[in-house]
Design a protein that fits this description.
Number of helices: 4
Strand content: 35-45%
Helix content: 25-40%
Structural class: alpha+beta
Distance between the termini: 45 Å
Number of strands: 8
Largest sheet: 5 strands, antiparallel
Oligomer: single chain
Radius of gyration: 25 Å
Strand order of the largest sheet: 2-3-4-5-6
């Protein structure tokens, strides 16, 4: 075989190799499903040791399609206040969004205007928190009576 044929053959192998690389890169995705039970959540550090000392007795109640978080808020100027918030998750463009459906303080419901303000406030901060703690592209999230499950894809999507 002469040098010219050998060079053409080498060039052909390189071209074929370059065509295979995008296919190999596309196959480097990993799908992971994570499930947390209600008892795992309620025994987690952040629930048992809230960041603010004014919040105590935190409890997370998973219900089909929603999460209810209740706690007691105490400040030096007030008596303890029982608070509760109901959140509903959704997934859009690989991100998890939480919407506050209802909120109460000592049994009194928050107004629609206050709920709108709360949702505007938590939307960005929760998305950034989740993205920082759970990188990847979320494809599904579901809440049942006793667990929360999400599926994520890592790599090229």
């Amino acid at each position: 075989m002469n040098a010219r044929k050998l060079g053409l053959m080498a060039l052909f192998v390189l071209i074929l190799g370059a065509m295979v690389l995008p296919t190999l890169a596309a196959d480097k995705t990993k799908t992971v499903t994570v499930t947390l039970s209600e008892s795992d959540i309620n025994s987690s550090y952040r629930v048992t040791n809230p960041a603010r000392r004014s919040i105590t007795n935190v409890n997370v109640d998973l219900q089909p399609g929603q999460v209810v978080i209740s706690a007691t808020f105490t400040s030096p100027k007030t008596n303890p206040i029982a608070v509760s918030v109901t959140l509903v998750p959704s997934v859009s463009n690989g991100r998890v969004y939480w919407t506050v459906l209802s909120a109460t303080a000592n049994g009194k419901a928050a107004s629609a205007d206050l709920l709108t303000q709360i949702n505007a406030s938590i939307s960005t901060s929760w998305r950034n928190y989740w993205k920082g703690k759970h990188p990847g592209y979320v494809t599904a999230l579901s809440v049942s009576d006793d667990s929360i499950t999400w599926t994520k894809v890592y790599g090229s999507v």
